[in-house]
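A.,

Following up on our hallway conversation. Structure tokens first:
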């Protein structure tokens, strides 16, 4: 990978990592479902009027929009709202890599090698450590919600694989139009019409910045650049760069939100990141060992 593209990939993971902290800042004044709904509404409008729909079946666009907008980011925002720290949320969400392996085995009939099984066991051990964090930065409900978000993210990976669309930017814009209405309905069902009537009263500069950061750097710019890199280089060269997301997520929560980095969190992070490395490189390492 060229140095410029390498630095660009690191920059995207930095954006995605600190995004969790900015989500939490926005949740201080805006309902989690409403915050996510506005994010995806503005991801779609007005660009949808100028960007041609990708040439793939609508079932993939609709299902991706619902899972990516509602199942992933709506639920993750709710998890952060219910007490899980931004840094831990960014880390737990990476478990989607292992859920994707399991789903790919069931749906796409892909085999699971021994290195991926080992990686999953190590990741589960890291998750057990997170459950035992007692500094108030992890709540059981928040953790469960982020795990649901990780599972939803895994399903979106399968959808992208089956849709086989090369125009990811158009795909994201058109899929985003199916996210806001379900999110707004969930906001109404959980908190009533006050989330809408008090919206402008609660809207402040921090909330506006949170919304804009989630729309443009995180979603539109981030996913556009990332998928361009995936088309330019082998996936094995690009995907492992995502390991930097939880690192920046934890550092972002420490510097932006002043959240404590305790010993158990650090050890749990090491286990999960180590598991992700094995998941990404384990098969190649085993092949080299066998050849020698």
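Then the amino acids I'd put at each of the 292 positions:
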């Amino acid at each position: 990978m060229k140095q410029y593209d390498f630095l660009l990939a690191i920059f995207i993971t930095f954006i995605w990592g600190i995004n969790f902290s900015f989500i939490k800042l926005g949740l201080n004044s805006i309902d989690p479902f409403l915050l996510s709904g506005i994010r995806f509404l503005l991801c779609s409008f007005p660009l949808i009027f100028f960007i041609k729909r990708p040439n793939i079946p609508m079932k993939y666009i609709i299902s991706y929009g619902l899972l990516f907008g509602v199942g992933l980011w709506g639920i993750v925002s709710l998890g952060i709202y219910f007490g899980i720290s931004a840094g831990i949320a960014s880390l737990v969400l990476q478990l989607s890599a292992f859920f994707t392996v399991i789903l790919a085995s069931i749906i796409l009939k892909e085999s699971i090698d021994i290195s991926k099984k080992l990686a999953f066991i190590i990741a589960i051990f890291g998750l057990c450590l997170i459950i035992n964090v007692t500094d108030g930065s992890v709540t059981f409900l928040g953790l469960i919600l982020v795990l649901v978000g990780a599972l939803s993210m895994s399903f979106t990976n399968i959808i992208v694989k089956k849709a086989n669309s090369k125009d990811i930017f158009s795909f994201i814009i058109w899929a985003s139009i199916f996210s806001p209405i379900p999110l707004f309905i969930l906001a109404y069902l959980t908190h009533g019409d006050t989330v809408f009537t008090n919206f402008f009263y609660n809207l402040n500069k921090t909330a506006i910045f949170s919304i804009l950061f989630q729309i443009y750097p995180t979603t539109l710019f981030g996913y556009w650049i990332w998928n361009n890199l995936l088309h330019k280089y082998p996936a094995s060269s690009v995907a492992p760069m995502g390991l930097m997301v939880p690192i920046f997520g934890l550092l972002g929560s420490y510097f932006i939100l002043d959240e404590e980095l305790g010993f158990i969190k650090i050890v749990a992070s090491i286990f999960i990141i180590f598991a992700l490395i094995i998941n990404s490189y384990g098969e190649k390492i085993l092949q080299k060992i066998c050849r020698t």
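The chain has a mean pLDDT of 84. Curious whether your intuition agrees with the design.

B.
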